[in-house]
Specification:
Blueprint (H helix, E strand, L loop, with lengths): L5 H10 L8 H28 L7 H10 L20 E3 L7 E3 L6 H6 L31 H25 L20 H15 L3 H13 L7 H14 L4 H16 L9 H13 L11 H19 L6 H14 L5 H14 L1 H8 L3 H13 L7 H18 L1 H8 L1
Helix pairs in contact: 1-2, 2-3, 6-7, 7-9, 8-9, 8-10, 9-11, 10-11, 11-13, 12-13, 13-14, 13-16, 15-16, 16-17
């Protein structure tokens, strides 16, 4: 037997305009079906309420359940609209189980005199800097340092609490041998891995033809973008570990130039890995095992490589060339640095262009010549022949940079 009385079914039939009277058996059958449908909708609505993390059922949950059952939703019964009033049902006079909602009377004069609602804003997009060169700007869109510190403290407290709970409930486990696997998933194909190994073998080997073929492939092969981070990491690590192996350093710089000259490799995302080894090969104190080796060629090659980086990516990173220039100028002015470092700074500023030479190098030539070069060049019997050769190299680099006439005019 249905909980819904037969009288309610008869009242509903009269409200929709049926002129004939339904029998008691038909009303009982309809009442059972209506009760089943109501239970079904109510159960679905309760599910929506629980998934919304609420404890009070709303009309929005009922409407969502109706939409789920492909039934037209109820209109005029929204609990989420601002300013909505609770529904107040009134009993019909003379009827026991018939209720209605009393509509609120609206005065048109009040409606016309009421202020117009605010015009909704158009959809728009705004941009802001999340971080500039690793520094987060203090703007309203970004979290403040206090918010970041608060999140860190909360995360550490939760982690500590979880660790303490785990330690308290932990059961000593038997000692087993575990295998540590890398976190990063390697997605390189076997062909690319084999290609990388061949390139590394060519760079480390002494076969000139194989080296030229490898460098040519790096410049013209269009399918090597996945290997670029491995190339830059390889160059950075090898330069750091082999500072005294001059031929190998030169081959590494040729590899760096090939990656920068390629039209298919976007090295601008990896300049933070490429720039330190290149600058090291320009201004390092010693780049060979014996001073008689031609490390000057490596310094000039690396200096031209710096100029290539500034020319290709200077418009994208406007602070790139000023930072490189500042590094070279600091090495040039530092009295504690060796003459080989000064030579690298001179050829580096020369490669960056005439503006760098005119504003930084030329005004400091007289003081530099009298302090560092003149004592070594004018000494007849130098006890340190290597240092005199280094001073001669710096002297020739200055003359080739500013010209002999301008050099003589500046120092005399």
């Amino acid at each position: 037997m249905s909980l819904l009385p037969k009288e309610s079914i008869k009242s509903l039939t009269e409200s929709v305009g049926l002129t004939y009277t339904l029998s008691d058996d038909i009303c009982a059958a309809l009442a059972s079906d209506v009760e089943f449908r109501l239970r079904e909708i109510t159960q679905e609505a309760v599910k929506f309420m629980r998934h919304s993390k609420r404890e009070i059922l709303s009309t929005d949950d009922v409407n969502a359940a109706l939409r789920l059952r492909n039934v037209e939703t109820l209109y005029g019964y929204s609990s989420s609209s601002p300013g909505s009033e609770p529904l107040r049902f009134r009993r019909v006079m003379g009827a026991k189980d018939l209720f209605y909602l009393q509509d609120r009377l609206i005065d048109f004069n009040e409606l016309l005199k009421a202020p117009l609602p605010k015009v909704p804003r158009d959809i728009s997009l705004s941009t802001h800097w999340l971080a500039i060169e690793g520094v987060q700007p203090a703007i309203p869109q970004n979290p403040t340092p206090a918010d970041i510190q608060k999140k860190k403290s909360l995360a550490e407290a939760n982690k500590k609490q979880k660790t303490d709970t785990t330690d308290a409930n932990a059961i000593p486990a038997p000692t087993i041998t575990t295998e540590v696997r890398p976190i990063v998933k390697h997605v390189l194909s076997k062909e690319l891995q084999l290609y990388f190994e061949k390139i590394v073998q060519a760079i480390k080997g002494t076969n000139v033809e194989l080296l030229e073929a490898a460098l040519n492939s790096l410049v013209h092969d269009p399918s090597l973008h996945q290997l670029l981070p491995y190339f830059t990491q390889f160059i950075s690590d090898e330069v750091t570990q082999n500072l005294q192996k001059l031929p190998y350093l030169l081959r590494l710089m040729k590899m760096a130039r090939a990656t920068l000259e390629s039209e298919y490799l976007y090295a601008d995302f990896y300049l933070h890995q490429l720039m330190p080894p290149i600058i090291t090969c320009v201004v390092a104190r010693s780049l060979c095992e014996h001073p008689s080796e031609n490390h000057w060629e490596l310094r000039e090659f690396s200096a031209n490589l710096l100029a290539l980086v500034c020319k290709k990516y200077g418009s994208t990173y406007q602070s790139l060339q000023p930072r490189i220039t500042k590094t070279l100028f600091a090495a040039f002015r530092d009295a504690s640095k060796s003459l080989t470092t000064h030579y690298g700074a001179i050829v580096g500023m020369r490669a960056l262009g005439h503006y760098c030479v005119e504003t930084l190098l030329l005004p400091n030539i007289p003081n530099y010549y009298n302090t560092f070069l003149a004592p070594e060049l004018t000494r007849e019997s130098s006890s340190n022949i290597v240092k005199k050769q280094e001073a001669q190299r710096c002297y020739e680099a200055l003359i080739s940079t500013v010209g002999l006439n301008r050099f003589l005019l500046t120092i005399f």
